[in-house]
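#data-curation
PF: Archiving a pair of folding outputs for the training set. Convention for this channel: one message per protein, sequence first, structure tokens after, nothing in between. First:
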Amino acid sequence: MLVRFHPHALERMEERGTTKEQVTIVVKDGERFPARFGRTGFRRNFPFDNNWRDKYYRTKQVEAYAVQEGTDWLVITIITRYF
């Protein structure tokens, strides 16, 4: 299974502090759930223990929304939450 990235997802990853490696882990090993518009959502928490935009957080949650193309996944967008 290959995980590919739409340009929109790459832009969101950069502005929200998420890497391609983390998103690939989320798609391959994260919780899977149905999403709108026939997409599939994937979610996983990562230990963070760092600052993001001048505030300390212990955990980073990454959500990826993707469409399946054959056996591959095309990631459309990313949401990152810090807590």
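PF: Second:
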Amino acid sequence: MTDTPMIDLSDVQKYYGDYHALRGITATIRPGEFFSLLGPSGCGKTTLLRTIAGFEEISSGMIRIDGRDMAGVPANRRPTNMVFQSYAIFPHLSVAENVGFGLRRLGLDAAEKTRRIGTALEMVGLAGYGARAAHALSGGQRQRVALARALILKPKVLLLDEPLSALDKKMREQMQVELIKLQRQVGITFILVTHDQEEALVMSDRIAVMFEGEIAQLADPETLYRRPTSRRVAEFIGVMNFLPATIVSEGSGRAALEVQGLGRCEVDAPPGGVASDGGTTVGMRPETLTILYDGQAPTDRSADGTVDEVVYYGDMTYYDVRLDGTDRPVRISMRNVFGRPVLNIKARVRVGWSPGALVLFR
């Protein structure tokens, strides 16, 4: 990937009458990047994807693709192709006819069409399926046909509108890995729209989290997960515990806190400082807390609490632990290694934690 953007979005606005669907979207997407638009239903992510594709006109702002302003450029003239949520497979055509459908306007001879169709099918793991009826395919196979049909035209950008949402959990997880491999193989820019946080974290180089037509945070998956810039992003990405805290002092990018249930500690202050009234909130992910078993020393700090709830998942057990001095439990995830017992409700426990795992919100 290079720093020269494949897609440059500059103050993109979109209105539907009085409804403000996109509110000043500004972002760049790099060549060869797997980029995701993540957010709840109605946040504007699909609208933004459709404006990039040319299916929707923007009200103001600018969209550039590969350095070219897309103002007035229709969808069929843009260097993009789109895989829809429904796949839009023609059931009366064969797999090969579906995949080669877009080649008809290129004026290719039959041999070249056959070669390109074969290459596209091989790319998505469907070599030898050309003669099969499209209606006889499984959901995962239909998804691959839709990908092959989009990739056969060699777009610079592939747009994916929740392409895995119709698949069951096991197939969806399998296709996530296959899409990552395919994107690396073809080397073009992928833009994925999804409301599934795990899907975005697994597949993306960078993620734009959207709420109400705006980008709330744009970062790589690890930064989004470990260092969300707002409580809203933190709540949307995975699970995070929140505890009230009081600011004792602040300076040089650090803040001294008194955290309910954890006591006094020092953490990184967020950009722009913290709440002026001294009250704030800290967050921590369930896996950054650990239950200390008999004889186990804490790696940094510890706090006492009582188990409120136990949820066993086989490889993991999730505990809701009410720390002494708190009014609500925190979630703790523990891997079920050999010899480690699963605790009972009402068990007294010591919880190990580190100030470095705390995220301070303004």
